[in-house]
């Protein structure tokens, strides 16, 4: 695949990660979106899970940064082994897609499973490039 295609796919992946990070921030602030995340057990996440959502948001932003640096969308001096991290994130997304598919929450299965699966496939394309 051409570099331009990978460049565009990477930007799409970063936008998806950013969008999910915003979703996680909303969860951490107590918005009633809990049925779409973490098994869907709570409409509003309890305080402990809100803290986890806040940490998840930061991790998602770091994941976007790793992909943007690895694909040279942004140029940054980094000591991070981005190629290894891209593969680790991609594998995590594959496992996450399976976990979302097995969720007891219908809302999580219907929304998050396709989102994580599409993101996994896009990341796999980037990883293999």
UniProtKB/TrEMBL annotation:
<feature type="transmembrane region" description="Helical">
    <location>
        <begin position="49"/>
        <end position="68"/>
    </location>
</feature>
<keyword id="KW-0812">Transmembrane</keyword>
<keyword id="KW-1133">Transmembrane helix</keyword>
<feature type="transmembrane region" description="Helical">
    <location>
        <begin position="110"/>
        <end position="128"/>
    </location>
</feature>
<keyword id="KW-0472">Membrane</keyword>
<protein>
    <submittedName>
        <fullName>Membrane protein SirB2</fullName>
    </submittedName>
</protein>
<feature type="transmembrane region" description="Helical">
    <location>
        <begin position="6"/>
        <end position="29"/>
    </location>
</feature>
<feature type="transmembrane region" description="Helical">
    <location>
        <begin position="74"/>
        <end position="98"/>
    </location>
</feature>
């Amino acid at each position: 695949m051409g570099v331009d295609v990978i460049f565009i796919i990477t930007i799409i992946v970063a936008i998806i990660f950013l969008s999910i990070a915003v979703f996680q921030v909303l969860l951490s602030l107590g918005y009633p979106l809990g049925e779409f995340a973490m098994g869907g057990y709570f409409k509003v996440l309890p305080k402990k899970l809100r803290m986890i959502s806040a940490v998840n948001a930061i991790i998602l932003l770091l994941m976007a940064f790793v992909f943007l640096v690895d694909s040279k969308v942004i140029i940054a001096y980094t000591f991070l082994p981005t190629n290894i991290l891209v593969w680790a994130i991609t594998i995590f997304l594959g496992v996450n897609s399976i976990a979302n598919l097995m969720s007891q929450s219908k809302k999580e299965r219907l929304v998050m499973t396709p989102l994580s699966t599409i993101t996994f496939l896009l990341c796999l394309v980037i990883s293999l490039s």
